[in-house]
Amino acid sequence: MEYLVSILVATIAAGTPLVFAALGELVTEKSNVLNLGVEGMMLVGAIAAAYALHLVLPTGVTKVLALGTPAITATITLGKAIAIEALLTFFLMSAMLGTTVSAEAPKVAGFGVGLTLFIGVLFGGPLTGAALNPARAFGPALVSGQWISQSVYWIGPILGALVAAFLWEKVLFPRATD
């Protein structure tokens, strides 16, 4: 039962920021009201998910699970954790760019990105918690008060995403020929 609750908490903590980002962009595009951008809405979504878990789950469960706050295993150093998060985010960002942005992309964006995320979480989950997104780590940390190694979940994903974006921009995207 504890394992199922852990999966539920991780799913809510990981998925809600994406839903809020999409809804936030849709609403602000149509209404021109408050525009926090994708990143801002992901942070709002992560906080909302963690707070919802805090309200719904019993106190004993929320303390043990820290509302889905990712954690680094004891055998991994801070530098290695940053490298793991950067590498996993690099692959995730590459999957996004290769299947959603590229003009030559096959129409398998959801499958390609989802499979990459699934493999990243399988590999990185036991090592770093596999946040792969600063918002995914921030919301649960804010609500639970668990700020341990929070820098890993900001530095690693930002570095990984920047390297992937640079590689795709300079090397992998097809060049326009005039």
Unreliably modeled segments: none
CATH architecture: Up-down Bundle
Strand content: under 5%
What do we call the CATH topology? Glycerol uptake facilitator protein
List the domain count as a whole number: 1
Number of strands: 0
Structural class: mainly alpha
Mean pLDDT: 78
Shape: globular
Write a brief structural summary.
The protein is an all-alpha fold.
Structure commentary:
The protein has helices at 2-31, 37-56, 59-65, 78-101, 109-128, 134-144, 152-172. It is mostly helical. The chain has one domain: Glycerol uptake facilitator protein (Up-down Bundle). The radius of gyration is 17 Å and the shape is globular. The model has no long low-confidence stretch (mean pLDDT 78).
Outline the fold blueprint.
Elements (H helix, E strand, L loop, with lengths): L1 H30 L5 H20 L2 H7 L12 H24 L7 H20 L5 H11 L7 H21 L6
Helix pairs in contact: 1-2, 2-6, 4-5, 4-7, 6-7
Name a few traits of the molecule.
single chain; 178 residues; mainly alpha; Glycerol uptake facilitator protein; globular
